[in-house]
Write a structure and sequence with these properties.
This protein is of the alpha+beta class. Helix content is 51%, strand content 15%. Strand 1 and strand 2 form a beta hairpin.
């Protein structure tokens, strides 16, 4: 799909490959739905290039120590995978300033509230074509 240009974004992350089918995203947007992608920085960069109107949110843990604790508590990854994820997170944080919003995930409920606030703010963003259509 990547070679055929059928992916909106695609990337490798800790020895796995991921991608988002472009057609699905476009169909959902045409229906008027919001599309939320849970992607890493390579993919986010590609989305920004292909869809500059996309809104990006960078979600970070309160600290690397807390991230390590969360990953270890899950019990799903080896120490090597956790170390690789921590190293990758340190690299990714360097790109946070390219995003529109930042959420520190120090409390899951509060982080969810912050995300909903971003959605609300973006829905209220000034839109000249809509204003002109309403004025007719």
């Amino acid at each position: 799909m990547a070679a055929a240009g059928e992916l909106l974004e695609h990337a490798g992350y800790v020895n796995h490959s991921y991608g988002t089918p472009r057609a699905y995203v476009e169909q959902q947007l045409e229906k008027g739905f919001h599309v939320i992608l849970d992607i890493e920085i390579q993919g986010a960069r590609q989305v920004r290039e292909k869809m500059p109107e996309a809104v990006s949110v960078f979600i970070v843990p309160p600290s690397m120590a807390e991230l390590r604790h969360r990953l270890e508590t899950r019990g799903t990854d080896t120490k090597e995978v956790i170390d690789a994820r921590i190293a990758r997170a340190r690299q990714e944080i360097q790109e946070a300033d390219f995003y529109d919003y930042l959420i520190v995930n120090d409390d899951a409920a509060l982080a969810a509230d912050r995300f909903r606030a971003i959605l609300t703010a973006e829905q209220c963003r000034f839109d000249r074509p809509t204003l002109l259509r309403l004025a007719e």
